[in-house]
Amino acid sequence: MAIYIARHGETGWNRENRVLGRTDVPLNEKGFAQAAELAERLADTPIDIIYTSPLQRTVDTAKAVADRQKGARPCVVAEPCLIEHNFGIFEGVDRADPIYQREKRTFVKRYPGGESYLDVAARVYPFLEKLLEESRGKNILLVTHGGICRIITSYFQDMENEDFAAFGMKNCEVRKFG
Fold it and tell me: Given the DSSP bridges, would you call strands 2-7 and 174-177 parallel, antiparallel or unpaired?
């Protein structure tokens, strides 16, 4: 069994370097191309099921992968706990904003109007535990967001605070655990 995590393809907000959490911004042209490239890279990797955030950018990325599988087409299941971090008042701001950058390093504190990293872990970790228990012998793909990929990675490997804060995955990057 292996769990693969992939970040969705590029959106306009990603391109503009804006904080993108729960706003349902679709893939742009480059994002659809990245999703097709990801699908090609994973075409020979047998995937039994794909769980995705309910936001359209992840669903479209997941469907591209499912459609390109050489074996049986896996089901794509929207999983609410994989939705991106709620960044509260920072939704849509420039990622270089110094106040956002400072707040990003306060892991226990909630973003005003949003979630803390602990809140996100509290919803993602139980899902991962259940998945590991119920999916023995299967290959699972989780298509989600950068913040959720950070949390999933922290579940599987210990991270120092600075490593956690600096963690990032490129659009349509994929990692394997297990």
Answer: antiparallel
Residue 4: CB atoms within 10 A of its CB come to 19
**Of 107, 89, 108, which Cα lies nearest the Cα of 97?**
89
* In contact, 10 and 31? CB cutoff 8 Å: yes
C-beta of residue 120 within 8 angstroms of C-beta of residue 150: no
Catalytic residue among 10, 79, 84, 115: 84
Active site residue 145: no
- Residue-wise pLDDT tens digits, 38-90: 999 999 999 999 999 999 999 999 999 999 999 889 999 999 999 999 999 99
Q: Which of 8, 10, 91, 145 is catalytic?
A: 8
On the CB side of 4, how many CA atoms lie within 13 Å of its CA? 23
Query: Cβ contacts of residue 21 below 8 Å, gap of 6+?
Result: 84, 85, 86, 87, 90, 91, 114, 145, 147
The reply to whether 85 belongs to the active site is: no
Q: Which architecture does CATH list for 2-177? A: 3-Layer(aba) Sandwich (3.40)
Q: Which ranges of the chain would DSSP assign to H, the alpha helix? A: 12-15, 29-42, 56-68, 98-103, 117-134, 146-156, 161-166
Pairwise CA distance, residues 119 & 104, whole Å? 14
Distance CA 121, CA 116 (A): 9
